[in-house]
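ARCHIVE ENTRY
Sequence with per-residue C-alpha cells
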Amino acid sequence: MSKFFLLLVIAGLCACTSQWTEPTDITGDSVLEEYRIGVGDVVSVDVWGNPNLSSEVPVRPDGMISMPLIGDIRAGGLTAEELSASITQELSKDIRNPEVAVILSELHSHEYLSRIRVTGAVVDTISINHRQGMTVLDAILEAGGVTEFASPDNTTLFRKKGGDTMQLRVQLNRIMKRGDLSTNYELSPGDIISVPERLF
C-alpha cells in the first residue's frame, strides 16, 4: 500500500486558465503539478447513496477502468478531479445529481511521473529519481555534463504547473564556469532539462 493518499470530493467541473509565468516567479517552493493517474494505480470511486455503483479498481495498461453501469471509462492521464467529473457526467445519464468522490488509494505510477529528465547535448541522456533539494546543476552533473556541441547558456527547464508548461531559461555556462547560481533552480518532480546544440 502506498503512503500517498489523495482524497478529492468533486462539486463541479474546474475551469483552468492558461497563463505565462516569468522565471523570476520560480523558487524551490513552487506548487507541484496535481498528480495524474497512471497505469497500475488503484482508484476507489464512491457514489454517494449508491453503494452498488461504488468500486475500487486498478487502472489497466490501456488507461481505462471499469465502472458499474458506465462500463469502461478513461482514467489514465487525468487528475482525480477530472476523473470524478467524467464519471459524474456519465452517471448523470441515468441518475439524478450523482455525487462522486474519487480516492487514489494506491499510487504505483508516482515514482515514474516524479522523475527528472535531462535531454539534448549532454553526455548521457538520463531519467533519474527526484531528490529533495536537487538543482539543475546536480542533474546536469549526473548526466555527465554537456557535450562540446552544446549551447549551455540556452538551456531550458520545462516545468508543469497546473495545466500549463513553463519554460525557464537556464544559463548553464555561467553556473558551471562563473559560479553564478541565479538560474540554478531547485528542481521539482517531473521537470525536464533540455540542453540545445549550438548553431554553427
Summary: The chain is about 15% helix and 30% strand. The longest helix spans residues 80-91. The chain has a mean pLDDT of 81.
